[in-house]
């Protein structure tokens, strides 16, 4: 399994109950649920086992496994919503979550390490035994289910305070690597909203 920074049909996965292939009813995916993820194009399951990842040897390998959605117990993942109480359901775009491998306890992980030419220089996806790292966080960008009504994307628009917080976080991150020249006037993040300097 690899990752890359643009959207296409290879990014689509079918979320299934861990113990059933039936999709007759609509169930919201909740914190603590056990699921299987089937890649829509290849019909293989997201799978991990205790083999070292190709680049990050301290992590476990993540692969596509099985045929037509059939696999084994290494295809089971647990949903862990960040700062969410038990049985909170996932919300598109807004929910940050971890996918914890049920058998090994590692977390699905991706970072900026690229694979060699055999991996088309895409980003490595691995299963990280250090569960609390920030690159173990995921969200769901799109959700399609013919049994549910369509909703407007406007509901995901950030509030003024969320936009202000995000813009300041981006400024802090981008400015943290800059060093002032001798005699140059600088400002601190708390001074930006009030235009102090």
TrEMBL record:
Keyword field contains Repeat: yes
Q: What InterPro entries does the record point to?
A: MIR_dom_sf, MIR_motif, PMT-like
Q: What Gene3D superfamilies is this protein classified in?
A: 2.80.10.50
Residues covered by the MIR domain: 26-82, 87-143
Instruction: Kindly state which keywords UniProt assigns to this record, in alphabetical order.
Output: Repeat
SMART domains documented for this protein: MIR (SM00472)
Q: Which PROSITE patterns match?
A: MIR
Entry-linked Pfam families: MIR
PANTHER family for the chain: DOLICHYL-PHOSPHATE-MANNOSE--PROTEIN MANNOSYLTRANSFERASE, PROTEIN O-MANNOSYL-TRANSFERASE 2
Please identify the protein, giving its name as recorded.
Protein O-mannosyl-transferase 2-like
Q: What is the lineage of its organism?
A: Eukaryota, Metazoa, Hemichordata, Enteropneusta, Harrimaniidae
């Amino acid at each position: 399994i690899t990752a890359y920074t643009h959207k296409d049909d290879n990014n689509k996965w079918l979320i299934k109950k861990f113990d059933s292939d039936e999709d007759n009813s609509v169930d919201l995916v909740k914190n603590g649920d056990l699921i299987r993820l089937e890649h829509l194009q290849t019909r293989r399951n997201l799978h991990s086992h205790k083999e070292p990842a190709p680049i990050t040897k301290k992590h476990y390998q993540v692969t596509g496994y099985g045929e037509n959605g059939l696999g084994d117990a290494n295809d089971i993942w647990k949903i862990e919503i960040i700062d969410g109480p038990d049985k909170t359901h996932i919300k598109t775009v807004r929910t940050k979550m971890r996918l914890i491998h049920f058998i090994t306890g590692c977390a699905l992980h991706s970072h900026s390490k690229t694979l060699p030419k055999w991996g088309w220089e895409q980003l490595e996806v691995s299963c990280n035994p250090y569960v609390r790292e920030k690159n173990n966080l995921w969200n769901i960008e799109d959700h399609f289910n013919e049994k549910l009504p369509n909703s407007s994307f406007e509901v995901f628009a950030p509030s003024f305070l969320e936009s202000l917080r995000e813009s300041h976080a981006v400024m802090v991150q981008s400015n943290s690597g800059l060093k002032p020249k001798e005699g140059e006037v600088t400002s601190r993040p708390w001074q930006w909203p009030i235009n102090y300097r």
